[in-house]
Q: What sequence folds into this?
């Protein structure tokens, strides 16, 4: 089968959304169809750049995509998928090979990605192309009916997200997933940050029932301080559910989420890296 690589910027967002929906229909983590506007919001939140992202065409039709977020010289494969009829044809391998080759040509040092550990075909492909597992990533959820935990600090207050983004942090990309790094939390619409000056947690808009934990910034790896911050936030919004998607390394769960009554979600991801230099 002959394949052709197509730069994402040559395609309309509506065309891209159509292929995205076809590729992710029946996805093991669930899927809600996107239109052009929803895809634009997704790409913005993920930091994906259409200048580096590519689609693959097979037999005259668009067969798959690979979106790239480039932060410094460490790109991340933000999302990758192929339509059902193009699976097991070599389309995904051809596209991934192209993305890696372009990254090498740019002089990038490594490529990052996350993949659900239960998604065996994708995991097999990434391993085949030299990606190595760095850590396991888990999601967590806390129900509103639980008794609010106690916080041991009275200095926690709301701070601006801009100020939060300037806190020196032990947790930086690419050692953690991009989505919980400062690069991502500064892009969250309606985000709110709470902390004590040396550490903070960033959560979603609190007007909704299900509050998302977006990430933590801390000058030192002080798990007790971060746990107290999240406890104080839960106290402030006692009738809300809290959740953290499966992009938090295992230690965050052991040190922060589990002690505060969060239950681990059934699906988990792997953070993977492929050296390019």
A:
């Amino acid at each position: 089968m002959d394949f052709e690589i197509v730069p994402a910027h040559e395609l309309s967002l509506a065309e891209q959304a159509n292929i995205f929906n076809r590729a992710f229909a029946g996805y093991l983590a669930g899927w809600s169809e996107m239109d052009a506007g929803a895809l634009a919001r997704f790409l913005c939140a993920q930091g994906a750049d259409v200048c580096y992202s590519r689609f693959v065409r097979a037999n005259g039709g668009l067969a798959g995509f690979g979106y790239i977020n480039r932060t410094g010289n460490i790109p991340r494969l933000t999302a990758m998928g192929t339509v059902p009829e193009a699976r097991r044809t070599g389309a995904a391998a051809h596209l991934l090979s192209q993305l890696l080759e372009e990254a090498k040509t740019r002089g990038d040092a490594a490529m990052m990605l996350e993949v659900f550990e239960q998604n065996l075909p994708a995991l097999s492909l990434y391993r085949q192309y030299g990606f190595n597992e760095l850590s396991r990533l888990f999601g967590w959820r806390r129900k509103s009916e639980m008794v609010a935990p106690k916080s041991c600090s009275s200095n926690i207050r709301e701070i601006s997200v801009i100020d939060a983004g300037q806190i020196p942090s032990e947790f930086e990309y690419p050692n953690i997933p991009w989505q919980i790094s400062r690069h991502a939390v500064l892009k969250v619409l309606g985000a709110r940050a709470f902390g004590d000056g040396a550490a903070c947690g960033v959560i979603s808009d609190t007007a909704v029932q299900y509050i998302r934990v977006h990430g933590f910034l801390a000058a030192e790896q002080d798990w007790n301080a971060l746990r107290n911050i999240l406890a104080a936030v839960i106290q402030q919004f006692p009738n809300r559910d809290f959740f953290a998607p499966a992009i938090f390394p295992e230690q965050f769960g052991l040190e922060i989420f589990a002690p505060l009554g969060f239950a681990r979600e059934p699906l988990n991801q792997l953070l993977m890296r492929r050296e390019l230099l």
